[in-house]
Amino acid sequence: MSTTNGQWYPPEWPERIRLLSAGELTPVTPRRAATVLLLRDGPDGTDGQDTPQDAQDARNDRNARGGAGEHSPDGPDAPERLDTAPEPAAVPEGSETPPEGPRNTAGGADGLAVYMLRRRASMAFAGGAYAYPGGSVDPRDERMVTWAGPSRAQWARRLGLDPSEATQAQAIVCAAVRETFEEAGVLLAGPTPHTVVADTTGDDWEADRAALVARDLSFAEFLDRRGLVLRSDLLGCWARWITPEFEPRRYDTWFFVAALPRGQRTRNASTEADRTVWIRPGDAADGYDRGELLMMPPTIATLRQLAAHGAVADALAAAADRDLTPVLAQARVENGELVLSWPGHDEFTKHIPGATGGPSA
């Protein structure tokens, strides 16, 4: 577990790193996954959202009836801007309603806030750690859906995939939207290419959400049944992290940013989480630095990056130029100790004394 600040560090890692260094551990192929940093301007407001202060009480009033999908534990070359489509979260010409709904697009004293959930302490993986809604791609996410925004081929290039992997790119985007609905009750889709549903509460929505979680209903079937268009233009891709090679469950995870749609409300719809909060990225990072909030490297890294932006609109605009080179941890044996590092993120480097000798990884 964590020994410095709030970084999550499982006790079995040293031994697995030793095995990998000695060539006795074969890395498993990571599954593709997506997670979403849901944003709004200011942690406090009049829309009934959770705040860091009231989330614990508020969750007791919610009915978290559905289970979450399999979570990503971690969540290219110079990224290409999607110039032929609206920038993520831009209000398209002639919109019936503003799709993204930031509370204050000019920012303000409060700055932007991000929606986070805390994994239950009983979870076998990263119990007690704060994370974002997300999970692995469902093979059925490749099924055709009514689509708005950048083309699937454009998304493939943006995600660092081969242009021929347009269908796989759709699956990653669909997973991001689907998991956000499954775990937070927020849906980035609407009846037209320029609108977003204003309310996802009620028994009928909950029944569909539960069916998605149980995999009784595919996301394509859900959208088709309700006559909805997936709003890929409301997403911006922020980062890409790959689970270390010594982990038995690995994920290749894309981190997206999106604004909370106007009128929609977040709720803890995941049985894997025991708390949800809206919190400023800087405040969350401070809590991590004090050792009060437990997080994995991708989570705290994205929070520190978001803290540089004063408003949701700023963060969404910045997403178009983010470098999506995958971040993959490196492990080696050096001078009798294990060294674990994440390229480009020196703060996460770990030196673990007492390692037996062996070849460098």
Automatic annotation (TrEMBL):
Biased composition (Low complexity): 46-55
Positions with biased composition (Basic and acidic residues): 71-84
Keywords associated with the record: Hydrolase, Magnesium, Manganese, Metal-binding
Gene Ontology molecular function terms on file: hydrolase activity
Cofactor(s) of this protein: Mn(2+); Mg(2+)
Keyword Nucleotide-binding listed: no
Family matches, as InterPro entries: NUDT19
CDD domains per the UniProt record, alphabetical: NUDIX_AcylCoAdiphos_Nudt19
Region Disordered, annotated ranges: 22-108
Keyword Iron-sulfur: no
Protein's name in the database: NUDIX hydrolase
Organism, as annotated: Streptomyces niphimycinicus
